[in-house]
């Protein structure tokens, strides 16, 4: 929910309000949405933000954080937000608009780039937790109240970065105060106890109240209301603030301090509330009192709907009792404030800020793309037909369910286990969904449009009725956020109630048809975790018109798959030369001797005779299929299973540089190809909606582990290099030429895809056309020449003079 200015106030006085703490040997409740964002913001590298998401790097940060918790015997339970409540929709749209505006400031090689979360970041965060076996639960709606209730009931700290937890009576550890290193609990030189802890700072309400001479705990919800939150706009208390000499220009931390002092001298809760209402116009008092009541209810820690999904060892622990909530007698307060009980309140309207994008939007094109995909050209507003959802309600008690929309138990269960995207809940309860803007070419049609047919299929499965319309809030061609009205896809699809009756083969067939997968695609030769990724490539190729998806784009994705799913699985996560040499340098020397003696590389076998050569074989892709010798490429399984550590070592140097920012972008940012970035943003949208469809169809294909398949920086660098080189085969030879097995894996995947659907050749690029600054007149035109932004290939050949020498790194050993 958020309390305006409170986090800044506390952080500016952290020595006074926060206490040093050693976190160890305890359960913790983690705010999943908050931690996902904080790990990306605090540990992400800004120079890579423009490339659409380095999910491999991000996943490694997440793993390291939870491994640190495990080292200190800290047992986490991660709780995620579910769908949006109606009161949040305007805030969500405002944030989407802000994000869209920020994207123009995201440049490669910039250390000052704003933090923009990639599209699939939260999915990757959850996937890593599931991979690590960390317990996760997803609330039906906003999670703050349930997180606080769990933290209080089980007497364990809460990790988050949300000002609401300063109001809840819980042990709150702000995430930015956590040091990302485990320290010995006792500073004995031999550390014989083997116990570790994490240094952080903790906030306890009792300590905070004592700092103000024993301020009454019941005043804290009033503090939240007076500062402004999702239920009460701060403008409602304009008269109250003006009498305290607190205006718009008063810094937030000073406003907080003055209000706390006022509450400290206001007596008890009832007298403070009466004095607040007494300074308001009479016609506003009843409405404001109800909003304050709702604020109090939110902080009461009463709501628990996901408790049964907690780990057994936590549930069996002896919980504390939840405190009785503050009770407000509405009629008594109204009488005390001298208001007639019979006063009608439905004509009362409190002045609130409204969202208006008219200043940021340009005139829109009146042409609809198709009958089922129309653009609403009116000012952005919330659909009045959307259902109200009160915070604290669970999914089965929403108005939709009460009026006949049945939510199957399997869907509710999978939602609460965090296996289904929250977009599904938004479509169910709000008939709305929201598209996260990405870094893309703003002169091309928005990247989300390519996957709208998949989204309409999702809507059809969830709502079924062809007469319904879902509001889809997304970027338009002018980079403003607007509402698209989407109808369910006009095709025969199962609904939520009968999906479970469909066979696995039937559900798989439905998914493959929606993804436009050709009938002759030999999917079963591939590992299970590759299948959905490769199937999505077909949809992406067939449905993307601008920019044209070429063989270079497709080969870039396949090379990224090899880099993350095969090489990283064998060698572990390595992104620095020295790290690689320390781990694999001896093997490289041994391979060099064999190469000099003209022996075949395979003559040394794939055995690892030293600790540095041990592979992370538990992460290798599994291949489970029923193939006969007549199946095309039936030998692919044995080829893939034969790839070992040495194959990855000999190719690693060539792959490593593509994980890094290219040197030419550091010196000349105009070389950055927005059309290529746009193409991969389109792919991410397709993959996102394909994964949601897969979950709604009860996973006929194994869900993608995105961090083991896609890295924005890597695919961009490989794509750019191939586009700018005169000979694509030369680039491929430099990457794969030293391992016949990896080369055959790559060529087989490309062959299977290109056999099923022809791949376009990349356009000839000999010169780079420097794009001229667009005039105001040009800006309104629907430009068709944006794809002509080209990069000069002169000098690029120099990048390959030693790529076939797999041992060039040995000079550093």
Automatic annotation (TrEMBL):
Q: Which InterPro entries match?
A: Asteroid, PIN-like_dom_sf, XPG_DNA_repair_N
Task: Indicate, by first and last residue, each region the UniProt record lists as having compositional bias (Basic residues).
Answer: 765-777
Give the molecular function GO annotations. Answer: nuclease activity
What are the boundaries of the region Disordered?
348-375, 762-800
| Bias (Acidic residues) ranges | 353-375
Output the superkingdom of the source species. Eukaryota
Q: Which residues form the XPG N-terminal domain?
A: 1-99
Give me the stretches of Polar residues compositional bias: 781-792
Similarity comment? Belongs to the asteroid family.
In its UniProt entry, what is this protein called?
XPG N-terminal domain-containing protein
Origin species, per record, is Laodelphax striatellus
